[in-house]
Specification:
Elements (H helix, E strand, L loop, with lengths): L7 E6 L22 H18 L3 E4 L9 H10 L4 E8 L15 E5 L4 H14 L7 E6 L3 H5 L4 E8 L3 H6 L3 H19 L18 E2 L10 E4 L7 E4 L9 E5 L4 E2 L1 E8 L2 E7 L5 E5 L5 E4 L3
Parallel strand pairs: 1-2, 1-3, 3-6, 4-5
Antiparallel strand pairs: 4-6, 7-12, 8-11, 8-15, 9-10, 9-14, 12-13, 13-14
Length: 298
């Protein structure tokens, strides 16, 4: 059996929250359209939690709501030496609901041409996706996509259904489906690397505990924190209150940040912000004024 801690998995949620066109048609039953990234980000976060519980290290290639350029995503995954990459998407055909039996349906896994490592990873993930919510399995598709072409290792792009199929579109905001999809992908990753899967309820590996809250730091609570670091490699942020690279999950380029500071912690002798992104997910980033600034209100 392999050791999960030896592997870094790059996780990519396709597109940005406001990317034009990446949304369902209007759905009368919920009174709105669903943006593709509403699913992509959620399943990616759940996948991150699944993999970290199994002991893997993870890297978020697009940690903000912005539509991070594809090259920035693969450059980050390659520069951190990720051992595999999974990019989550939701497919579309003609952008309209044509009715039951007329709409496209099903999930597919996309790999680069003649890439045996991509295909092996896809086969392991497909094994479990086919066991979940009943969908048409459209197979493993070889395609010239940036994410699979430019990453220096096994990579797959998963189209988890069709946004212009009303039944599948509603799955996008179904948390049970999001969690199920993440679990199935994690099982496939574990098979691929020969690592035991750790089921929910097992705490897995714990992180470093913060020493204490920083007294008198309440004036920054609720405000935005933003990177002022201009280094090409970006500013690290973490899934736990620690500066240990094991729990590094992404980078912030200059001007990017998190909308809400929750509190300031003293961690390993330095100040650190506990922050939330726009969806309420919690991360940790340095509070050093050399690297970040606090601006306005969240």
């Amino acid at each position: 059996m392999g050791n999960a801690g030896d592997y870094l998995i790059a996780l990519d949620d396709g597109h940005g929250l406001g990317t034009a066109g990446k949304r369902t048609p209007y759905i009368p039953s919920i009174g709105r359209k669903i943006r593709e990234n509403e699913f992509n980000e959620r399943v990616t976060i759940f996948l991150k939690m699944e993999l970290e519980r199994c002991g893997y290290r993870t890297l978020l290639t697009a940690p903000t709501d912005a539509d991070t350029p594809l090259k920035t995503r693969t450059d980050a995954a390659n520069s951190f030496g990720a051992d595999a990459l999974i990019s989550n998407h939701f497919n579309a055909f003609d952008g309209k609901f044509d009715g039951s039996g007329n709409d496209p349906e099903g999930h597919s896994i996309h790999v680069y041409y003649n890439d045996s490592a991509d295909r092996r990873l896809a086969e392991h993930i497909a094994k479990y996706l086919k066991q979940g919510t009943k969908q048409v399995y459209r197979g493993i598709i070889e395609q010239n996509l940036h994410m699979t072409r430019e990453f220096n290792g096994p990579a797959v792009l998963v189209e988890n259904g069709f946004m212009d199929n009303e039944r599948e579109a509603l799955l996008m905001i179904n948390e049970d489906f999001q969690r199920e999809t993440a679990r199935e992908q994690a099982l496939g990753v574990c098979d691929f690397f020969g690592v035991p899967y750790v089921a929910a309820g097992n705490p897995g590996n714990g992180g470093t505990t913060p020493i204490s809250d920083v007294p008198g730091s309440g004036d920054v609570v609720g405000k935005r924190v933003e990177s002022i670091y201009r280094g090409a490699e970006g500013l690290d942020f973490y899934s736990r209150p620690t500066f240990d690279d094991t729990y590094r999950v992404g980078i912030l380029k200059y001007g990017y940040g998190f909308p809400t500071i929750v509190r300031t912690l003293k961690v390993e002798g330095a100040d650190m912000y506990e922050v939330k992104n726009s969806r309420g997910y919690v991360f940790y980033v340095t509070a050093s004024l050399k690297y970040v600034k606090v601006v306005g209100s969240g």
